[in-house]
Design a protein that fits this description.
heterodimer, A: 323 residues, mainly alpha, MetI-like fold, two-stranded antiparallel ribbon, 2 strands, globular, B: 270 residues, 9 helices, 0% strand
Chain lengths: 323, 270
């Protein structure tokens, strides 16, 4: 009962936040000074041409009316038309989204899997060289900007060793048919860049999750009944570490998406980020707005899921809600 | 051992500030002077870190670039503190519906990453260091609202607040005399952490070509230019990358060190 109430309230907050986000994004993009239609057509355009374009893009209507129709379109998955190509924005986003999803979808699980053993090592031997080295490496990984990590990987694996391509994208099902090697070789370095940065951060929180448990009475009890330190830490610490991971993923998902945007630029991948940057360069506002709102929806949805998972993992939260 | 992160952090930041300050009066070479004969020169006595594709000395450009990095960080973080902390404190003291609304709005803003906000603003206003600074500052405001709000709530639960109230202290007196001094150290820790986020955001924007124009030396922009020549030489891309990483590391370590000084119980974590 209490869990159901929590879930309903949390979903309500999600819907309100979503509406708020649409207002924020719309207002920012709306704040464009000057006349978009005039700027697009150039100074040589006749007033009639400008007027026709304003009419076609719906710029003559008041801002609130444009917001309402944009919002109405959003609910039907219609993000409007590109100023530049006249194509539907969702049609343009689709294939780009697939690339970004592969990038993030491959990196996130690998980063989580990598962070648990490294965090465990850093916690277990936190006063010995193994722990200190692991912690120091994660500090470096957290400080390095993701494009620096990407460029270092390119220098080592593409320029020096010549094992992998420096950039580009190869679809799994390309014109040449099913091409696993080509697809994989182009994704190894971008995924590795995201994994290195994210795993460094995650492992630090995982480590702290384990260290917290080390000080708990129940760990001493477990040791007293004859469990080894390893067994006690893994058995009792994993759930605590899982809480840390869920919290950090929720906080980091926006950083992860931003990281993906930058990584796409480093490796010239045709993903959402490169579409966004092209649209910014050409001031194609419907595309910019569409991608922005998509990213915000993803961030909000992930934090919703994380909150719900949190309630499921941590029984204390459930009882607290019940009180 | 624990003091190490504080000392190391301060040393790295000191190095960066010194390099930026020194660049105002002296650089090893002219940071704008094109020397075609020095193009892609590896590190040597005349160019300590080598020269870029224009034959410009990398050390000199890095020193000038430190100024932009520091300036963006200082302005963005100050903006976030000046706007965010008072709002957070007020919403922690007066818990009416305006405070709730404010917190909800800051939650929504929180879902908008700094870089995305910056990209939106750049799409509207055009690329410049000023737009980037504003965007990073605005995106950091909700971080300080949340932090100051939570810290104020825990201070307000203390007994000495009840004591002050029963002595007839007004809300603003409580805020200024009791809440602000007590949350100031936490604000300091957060400022240090936000500074490294701001550096990373500015570097990212410059790397994407969305902040400074090509003529202004910034670390991110230097990496963007250097990446084009990776198969010829790696120095012009790697040197500014190391500078960014060291600067961020410095502020991260400073934040960790400050937090340890603040709360000895946290020393085990870290």
């Amino acid at each position: 009962m209490a869990v159901a109430q929590t879930i309903v309230r949390r979903v309500g907050v999600f819907v309100l936040s979503l509406l708020g986000a649409t207002v924020v994004v719309f207002l920012i993009v709306q704040a464009l000074p000057g006349d978009v239609a005039q700027a697009t057509l150039g100074m040589a355009a006749t007033p009639e041409q400008v007027e026709a374009l304003r009419e076609r893009w719906g710029l003559n209507r008041p801002a609130w009316a444009r917001y309402v129709s944009w919002l109405g379109g959003l609910f039907q998955g219609d993000l409007g038309q590109s100023y530049l190509t006249g194509q539907s924005v969702s049609g343009q986003i689709g294939p780009r989204l697939a690339v970004t999803c592969q990038l993030v979808g491959l990196s996130m699980p690998i980063a989580v899997l990598a962070s648990v053993p490294t965090g465990l090592v850093a916690a277990m031997w936190r006063r010995r060289w193994q722990g200190v080295v692991t912690s120091a490496l994660s500090q470096i990984g957290m400080a390095a900007p993701i494009f620096f990590v990407g460029i270092v990987l390119v220098v080592v694996f593409a320029v020096r060793l010549n094992w992998l391509p420096a950039n580009g994208y190869n679809p799994l099902l390309g014109p040449a048919g099913f091409d696993l090697a080509g697809w994989g070789s182009h994704l190894v370095l971008p995924v590795a860049s995201l994994v290195i940065v994210q795993a460094s951060l995650l492992s630090r929180y995982v480590r702290n999750g384990f260290v917290e448990v080390l000080a708990e009475d129940y760990l001493r009890t477990a040791r007293a009944v004859g469990w080894t330190k390893w067994r006690a830490l893994v058995r009792h610490g994993l759930r605590n570490a899982a809480l840390s991971i869920v919290t950090v993923i929720a906080l980091q998902i926006s950083a992860m998406l931003v990281g993906a945007i930058i990584v796409e630029q480093v490796f010239a991948l045709p993903g959402l980020g490169s579409l966004l940057l092209q649209a910014v360069a050409s001031r194609d506002l419907p595309v910019v707005r569409g991608i922005a709102i998509l990213l915000v929806v993803v961030v909000l949805a992930i934090s919703l899921v994380a909150d719900l998972v949190y309630v499921l993992i941590d029984p204390r939260l459930r009882s607290r809600e019940a009180q | 051992m624990r003091r190490l992160s504080l000392v190391l952090g301060l040393a790295l930041i000191g190095l960066m500030v010194a390099a930026a300050a020194l660049s105002l009066v002296w650089t090893p070479d002219d940071p704008y002077l094109v020397r075609p004969q020095d193009r892609f020169m590896p590190p040597s006595w005349s160019h300590w870190l080598g020269a870029d594709r224009m034959g410009i000395d990398l050390v000199s450009r890095l020193m000038v670039g430190a100024r932009t990095t520091l300036m963006v960080g200082v302005i963005a973080v100050c903006l976030a503190i000046v706007v965010g902390v008072p709002l957070g404190v007020i919403s922690g003291i007066r818990r009416g519906w305006p405070s709730q609304l404010l917190l909800r709005i800051s939650d929504v803003m929180f879902a908008l990453p700094a870089l995305l906000l910056a990209i939106l603003l750049v799409a509207v206003r055009g690329a410049s260091v000023a737009t980037a600074t504003w965007a990073i500052g605005i995106a950091t405001v909700p971080v300080f609202i949340r932090m100051a709000h939570a810290a104020t709530l825990s201070v307000m639960a203390q007994d000495f607040i009840d004591a002050a109230r029963s002595c007839g202290a007004s809300r603003s007196a409580i805020a200024l005399r009791h809440v602000l001094p007590n949350i100031a150290p936490i604000v300091g820790v957060q400022a240090s952490a936000s500074f490294s986020t701001a550096i990373l955001a500015e570097a990212g924007l410059s790397y994407l070509g969305l902040a400074a124009p090509a003529t202004t030396p910034t670390w991110g922009r230097m990496m963007r230019d250097g990446q084009a020549d990776l198969f010829l030489t790696a120095w012009p891309a790697l040197a500014p990358g190391c500078a960014i990483a060291l600067a961020v590391l410095g502020f991260n370590l400073l934040g960790d060190g400050l937090r340890d000084q603040l709360d000895p119980r946290l020393r085990e974590l870290g």
